[in-house]
Amino acid sequence: MNTLLKSLFVASAITSLSAAAAVTTSSSNQASFSFEGTIAPLCKTSSGSNSVTGLKLDASQETQTIGTLDVWCNTGENATTEYTSANGGFLKADNAQGSKIAYTLDIGDTTGIDLQTGSYKHASTLAGTGVDGDTQATALKITPKSNGLNDAGTYSDTITVTVSPN
Q: What range does the record give for the signal peptide (predicted)?
């Protein structure tokens, strides 16, 4: 049994010696450690008021606010936003005819955007910055192209906005 303990003690001593670093006469009184990390460019968004009921769908073709888009980016620059319509740029009715009313979209000062041709990229959407997460708001509006003679029904669409850094 003593032989076993002696063998364990010798193995332990050898392991301890190899784990320790030796100080030599050429060692310095300083040590340096270099390290780095990366934070990727990022933008975040939320929608302020974004659930509108009671749009005016008459012959007036009145421009109406549908909400605000709040954007923050960690780049110190504005963002690119991409807009897509679930109904291809139309307000669709819940009636048997499946009636549609075209509309145009306004993003801040950019007006008359037609989503019938597909998605739209807006390369200068205002973005907040800073560690507090303060956002910049952009008003979103639509102008229904109704003529006052449209079929009865409740018309709706959903616009999805994807935000990315410039």
A: 1-21
